[in-house]
Amino acid sequence: MKVGIIGAAGRMGRTLIEAVQAFDGLVLGAAVDVPGSSLIGADAGELVGQGKLGVLLADDINKVINDADVFIDFTIPEATMVNIRACRAAGRRLVIGTTGLTDEQKAELHAAGADIAICFAANYSVGVTLCLKLLDTAARVLGDEVDIEVIEAHHRHKIDAPSGTALAMGEVVASALGRDLKDCAVYGREGRTGARDRKTIGFETIRAGDIVGEHTVMFAGEGERIEITHKASSRMNFARGAVRAAAWLAERERGVFDMQDVLGLRD
Ligand SMILES: NC(=O)C1=CN([C@@H]2O[C@H](COP(=O)(O)OP(=O)(O)OC[C@H]3O[C@@H](n4cnc5c(N)ncnc54)[C@H](O)[C@@H]3O)[C@@H](O)[C@H]2O)C=CC1
Ligand SMILES: O=C(O)C1=N[C@H](C(=O)O)C[C@H](O)C1
């Protein structure tokens, strides 16, 4: 199966080129990056030091839409929306890793799932997908007897906050507790805040250095504290998960899925 990578010159895009080539049954068919980039026309293989692959970076998915069976998008939300529309029009499967989409953009993504198969996950690592299951259990057991805080840390180049993974973790915990994250989330604290409201879920964000991606959800009670933590040390763990999702989508005609579906963890 041929895979097209959008955002191919980026941190994840370069890692994805390597991950696709290493996955049995998959081959790189197309690579796309932003119009005007000095890397347009470059060979994707040479971009990652693997020698020529004969796949040259294009600046528009529509120019290579017939060169791949499934596309993988790790770009920015505005680009992702263009790619969703292109894949929907051409009947191509799409794996989306981009975070920071608005509610309206997510609604359009889900509408596209009526026509094509999409996998959409804020974090493609197996470890985070497992953590989401653990968080659901922890929240149901601990209930409203604890204060819950989500702490995340990423590299200095990350442009969105909190991370999509942190928000996904918050959503799992809020849902397990019967809360609406939109109503109970507190993003950072400063000034005379008064005592903490137990019904809230706090989010704290660190941006520094070359941190790949670290998340901790703290359940702090009276006399004990439970912390569930995931630390990524390589982007290859995200890339392998995304490529695995691309292969998994091959058997699906339409619908919107996530990594719990890919890993068979859906209850
Ligand atoms: N779901 C997951 O497991 C993970 C998600 N991410 C997310 O992936 C996204 C990208 O992260 P990075 O690779 O670190 O960013 P990056 O900035 O290194 O790469 C983004 C790439 O997209 C390209 N791009 C921008 N506009 C474009 C357009 N219109 N058409 C084609 N390409 C375009 C940029 O030129 C760049 O090469 C972020 O939203 C990040 O949060 C990152 C890692 C894991
Ligand atoms: O921007 C990143 O690097 C990452 N972004 C994702 C997110 O926003 O959760 C996933 C991972 O943590 C790395």
UniProtKB/TrEMBL annotation:
Domain Dihydrodipicolinate reductase N-terminal: residue ranges: 1-124
- Keyword set, alphabetical order: Amino-acid biosynthesis, Cytoplasm, Diaminopimelate biosynthesis, Lysine biosynthesis, NAD, NADP, Oxidoreductase
Similarity comment: family membership: Belongs to the DapB family.
Could you give the subunit structure recorded for this chain?
Answer: Homotetramer.
GO molecular function terms here? Answer: 4-hydroxy-tetrahydrodipicolinate reductase
Instruction: State what protein this is by name.
Output: 4-hydroxy-tetrahydrodipicolinate reductase
Q: Which organism is it from?
A: Alcanivorax quisquiliarum
Q: List, alphabetically, the NCBIfam families matched.
A: dapB (TIGR00036)
Does the keyword section mention Cytoplasm? yes
PANTHER family found in the cross-reference section: 4-HYDROXY-TETRAHYDRODIPICOLINATE REDUCTASE 1, CHLOROPLASTIC-RELATED, DIHYDRODIPICOLINATE REDUCTASE
Where primarily located? cytoplasm
Which residue positions are annotated as catalytic? 154, 158
What does the protein in this record do? Catalyzes the conversion of 4-hydroxy-tetrahydrodipicolinate (HTPA) to tetrahydrodipicolinate.
PROSITE patterns in the cross-refs = DAPB
- Which amino acids does the record list as binding NAD(+)? 7-12, 33, 97-99, 121-124
| EC number, UniProt record | 1.17.1.8
Give the pathway annotation.
Answer: Amino-acid biosynthesis; L-lysine biosynthesis via DAP pathway; (S)-tetrahydrodipicolinate from L-aspartate: step 4/4
Gene encoding this chain? Answer: dapB
Carries keyword Oxidoreductase? yes
Location in the cell? Cytoplasm
Q: Which residues form the Dihydrodipicolinate reductase C-terminal domain?
A: 127-263
**Broadest EC class assigned to this enzyme:** oxidoreductase
Coiled-coil intervals in this record?
A: none
Which parts of the sequence bind (S)-2,3,4,5-tetrahydrodipicolinate? 155, 164-165
Q: Which reaction does it catalyse?
A: (S)-2,3,4,5-tetrahydrodipicolinate + NADP(+) + H2O = (2S,4S)-4-hydroxy-2,3,4,5-tetrahydrodipicolinate + NADPH + H(+); (S)-2,3,4,5-tetrahydrodipicolinate + NAD(+) + H2O = (2S,4S)-4-hydroxy-2,3,4,5-tetrahydrodipicolinate + NADH + H(+)
